[in-house]
Structure formats: structure tokens, C-alpha cells
Amino acid sequence: MKKVLLACTLVASALGGVQAQSARSPEGRPDWPGAGQLFVGVNYQPVDRSLDQVKRDVGLMKQSGFKVVRMGDLAWDYFEPAEGRFDFRHFDAVMDEMHAAGIRVILDIPGLPAPMWLHHRYPGVDITNQAGTRLAPAERYMDNIGDPDYRRLAARMADTLTRRYARHPALLAVGYDNEIGNGFMSYAEADRQRFVGWLKKRYGSTEALNKAWATQRWSRRIGTWDEVRLPYAEGPGPAERYLDLRRFWSDLTVATLDDLEAVRRRNTPDKPALSNYWDWSGRKGFDYLGSYRQHATFGAMGFYAGEPVGGAWEATLIKGGMSTPTWFNEFTAGGGGAYGSKGWSRMWANFVLLMGGQAVLAWTFNSHLGGEEQVLMGLLDHDDRPSWKLDEWAQIAKDYARLEKLGFPRHVAPKVAIAYAFDNTAAHSANGPSNTSRQYLKTSYLKQAHGAFEPLLKDNIDVAIIKLSYEDLSRYRLIVLPGMYLLDKASTEAVRKFVADGGTVVMTAQSAKVNDNNQWHATPLPGGLTDVFGLQTHEFYDVAGTMKLGDEEIRSTIEHYELLEPAGAEVLARFTDLDGQPPAITVHAFGKGRAVYVATPAQPAIMRPLLRRLCADLGIAPGPSTPDGVFARVVDGRVFYVNTHATPVEVAIDGTFKSVLSSKRWTGSLRLEARGAELLER
């Protein structure tokens, strides 16, 4: 695609693209705020605040324009100091103070961490490490959520808490188990037995299990279920078993969330589930994108971005295929270090609006004097004096109060999706592949995913991040599969149907190599999709090459490529400096659609020109043209710009525009201040 044509398209999109901005409330949530409502608030832990301090805190919140607080998380023993003895007197008063101030409450059920009394009375809740040592709960989240006593008492806590506050006028929503993906695996005998039960349900027999785990290799055949051991999350172990270990703990995590969701449906059916998830945590994680409709009403997360690509990726991942706005239940209060950096939170608060955000809640209101986060300063300093952070968050509240009348939260309806799967993250992780496969997977899955996502983000195109087998793919025109090393059978069939029905798919190297059990396909590659892509690929080499796509010469930045053997596919680009000039990118017509294969791992230098071509062909217009580090979207015919740099930036604009926020007029060029934002209209 020629740069001049691209520039014209970007300008046309910026000036002429008017998108529907209303965010519909989901079924059964008639009271849920949708279009025209944005929320700024804070996380609040009243456990060690006197009632006088609470009243002062709430007064400052109201004065700052906060609309919502999130409370209850991390505080199980505050509500239940001893088994079966509940004390809500202090929290009742806090809830009443919030209501009197007009502040709504997200009530987070504190299933994590479990109280010390629970660990003492029910030792099955303790974590046992890989060496078989039972560990004291030395830090939060050291709770075995698979233990039946834990699940029973967590559900009772949820039931008691939600019944008490179900009709409280301050209650807005219910959340579950703060950062539930950030827990620990356990290796007690009871965990092994639960794992065996899970395997029996999945495979039915030891014969099927042996086949799935390739136990014929290296004398690892399992004769009876009693011989099954929990695979190691860290250290040696076959790839197939490691994958099932991850799946097992994911299913337990989802089951715990299902327990709590059942309580919400029973006690507060008119309030949405709005939890602070951490499904990509390296400790354990879980299959959020394959389960969120079971336990979530809206996507929500803790947002602590360090740079735009990673921050936008996480904000997009938590949204999944939802059409509703995203809530950022924890939000960086300063960032850039323990005390913070001025303007940082305000910039990110504007940035997440581009991603379809509706609410930002600062972490946290009071600075902690002790515990695990002593120097993660809140909006008040350690001596209860309001810091500059409180002033900045009051300004964010004013910003949002203006923007909610101007088309926000913006409705996001992407036509481009990137495939992502928990199973694939497990197959890619340090212990996921075999020792030799780790040499093959030199580029991490997340790096490949970012490599496909970054060019779309920087062209200001909305993207969905989805699990292929969990979504209605017909809403998308283009789907990218970056480094999908494990592409399970259900996802393989979903890709086949999507292309046959007229969709366009892009798959990159290192994809569709292993089956559902993390074993390499015994068939031509890409497994199950050779006819869809019109090629086979068997050989691969650790060499970087240069390719020519149209008039553009591109150098791969990753030393890996696959030797593509077209069998019906058309060659779009070839390596110009490798022996025989092998194909670098191919395209194949299948059914009503197209399947594109890239011989290298996903990387921005290659994906950018390719995706621009495909988007142009598919009628997917890029967003407003912006320099690197500046992002923009069209909102009700206006253009909203956010500068993520700590220095001012000049942005070229076509013609004369007026700032809705400052009434300034700009002709030919817009000056965005450091970490600044502007909303322009003709």
C-alpha cells in the first residue's frame, strides 16, 4: 500500500467516521449505567480506619468528585474474625457514609486471602510446595482454592455478605476474589487425588491417558491411577502433563468463580459481577477468555501499564468479545515508582477511554503503614495529608464529567480480532514445551501477540482479543493467529469455518504445531489446516531474512523462518537473500475467504505492511493519523487524541479544528502537551 493513499485514508477516517457510541446494558441489568456515564473513584480499605477517619476520608472523596469506591477485598477476617462469628457493625457505618455522600460501592467478596483461623483449623487450605513441604500462609494468595473447606467457607462468606448488603442503596456491583489468577498451585496428596479425578473425567481410562501423555517415551507408562503424580510447575517434566496441570488449576479457579456467581445470582440478581481479574498471572492464571460469560458481567482488571502496547493489550484482553464498557477496578495512582509521577494517572485515564473504558478507580486512597505494600503510596500520604495525587484524581473526575456528555464511554465494535488462548500460553511457557521444543520456540508467545497487535494499535484500529472456540467469529472480517503453537481441535474447526464463510485469517510461523495434548502433529503442518492455507511446512531454520512485499523491503528481526511449500497458495512475498528465495508470505482462497501464512514469527516490521494491505482490501479503515506514541479515536464525529509522551508532540491535522475541551483553534497542526489529551471538532 502506498504511503500517500494510506495518509488520505487516515484523514478521511478521522474527519468522516462517526461511530455509534452508546453502550447497551446487558440483559437483566436495567439499572446498570451505560452510555453517557463515566466513573472515577478509588479503592478503600476501612479495616483500620476509625469512624471519624472514615467520615473525613469520605468527605475528601466527595469533594474530589468521586462517584464509586471498591471495598471489601483482602479483608475476610475483618468481616469474620472467627469461624462463624460475623461482625458488620463498622462496615455498616462505612456503607452508610458512602450512601450519604452519593458514592456507589463495588462490594468485593474477600475470598482471597483466607484468614489465619481458617488455615489453622483446616490445614488443607495451606499450600504444599513441589517438594512436599506444607507452607504457612506467609503472603497473600497462599491459599489452596481447591480445598473443599475453603470453597465451602468462601461461598458462605459470599452468601452472608451479599445477603446483608443486597438492598443497601449504595451497592452498585459485586466482585470476586481480588486478583484470583495470581494464586499458587499446591502439591498435597488431596490435590493429587483431585487431579486424578479430573483426569478420569477428561480421559476415562489409563489407556487414553497414556496416549495423551505419550508415556511410551522414556519408560513413563502409567499402569494404575495411583501411579499418577502432579507434574511440576517449575522444573523438569513432559510437556503434555504440564499442560494438563495448568488446565486442572484453571478449571478449579473457574469453579471457584462459579460458586460465587451462583451466590450473586441468588442474592443480588439485579447487580452485575464486576471482578478484578488477573488471568494472565505467571504464577497460575486461568482461562478467562474461555469462561468469562459464566462469571463476569463486565470486563474488569487492575491497570498498571508501563508502556502503551502492553497496557492496551491487557485492557483489550480483559474485554474479550464483550460489547459493554470496561472497568479498571484498580488503577495506577501515579505509577513510575513508589510515590509516582505527575500527570501519569491522568494520561492513562484518558488512554483507557480510547479502549472503551468506563471507570478508573485509583489504588489506593490511604497509604499503607504496614503490610505487603507499605511504599505503594495512596492518594493520602502516610500521615493522612492529601497528596498531589488526590488533586490529580480530582482533575480526572472533572475530565470524565465533561467527557461523559460527549459520547463516552465509546462503544467498541472491532472488525479485527487476535486469537489468544490460555492453553497456548501454557504450551509456550518455560515448562510447557519439551526441552528440544524450547529451542524451537525462541520467541515468546506474548512477544508474537504484541507483534501482531502493535501495528493495529498504532494505526488506531479497534481490535478484539478472543478465544477462537468461544466467540461468534462472524462479527469479524480479519483474524490474526500469532504464534498459535497449540491450536486445539475446536479452534482449528472454528478457523476453517470462518474462512470458508468468507473471513480472512493470518497465521504466523510456529503455529498449529502441536495438538490438544501438546504433542506434535503426526500429519502435515500446519496441523489440520494445510488445505485451508494451501501449503505445507516441514523445515525451519534459525536465520533472519529480508523479504519484499510490493515495493516495500522488510528485514525480519527474529532469526527463524519456515520453508513454505505452496500447494495452491499464491506467493505474496519472497525472501530475497535466502537460498532459492523461498516464499515469505502466501495467500490461499478457501471457500469464500482467504488464508494468509507468514513464514516468520509475528513482528511489527512485517505485520504492519501486511495488515495495512489486508485492512484496506477488507474495508477496515484505519483511525486518525498520529505520530508514534500518540493515539486517537473518532468519538461521535470528534477526534480524541492522547499523548503518552512526557514531552509535547505536534500532530498534523487536515484543516481547522476547535478544541471542545479548551476552545482553542488549531489549523494544520495540533500541539499536544506532555501526557496531554484533546478532543477536536470541526
From TrEMBL:
GO terms for molecular function: beta-galactosidase activity. It comes from the Bacteria. Residues 1-20 form the signal peptide. The keyword tRNA processing does not apply. Keywords: Glycosidase, Hydrolase, Metal-binding, Signal, Zinc. Residues 415-620 form the Beta-galactosidase trimerisation domain. Transmembrane segments: none annotated. It catalyses: Hydrolysis of terminal non-reducing beta-D-galactose residues in beta-D-galactosides. Pfam families: Glyco_hydro_42, Glyco_hydro_42M. Residues 44-399 form the Glycoside hydrolase family 42 N-terminal domain. Its EC number is 3.2.1.23. InterPro entries: Beta_galactosidase_Trimer, Class_I_gatase-like, GH, Glyco_hydro_42, Glyco_hydro_42_N. SUPFAM superfamilies: (Trans)glycosidases (SSF51445), Class I glutamine amidotransferase-like (SSF52317). The keyword Glycoprotein does not apply. Belongs to the glycosyl hydrolase 42 family. PANTHER family: BETA-GALACTOSIDASE GANA (PTHR36447), BETA-GALACTOSIDASE YESZ (PTHR36447:SF2). This is beta-galactosidase. It comes from Pelomonas cellulosilytica.
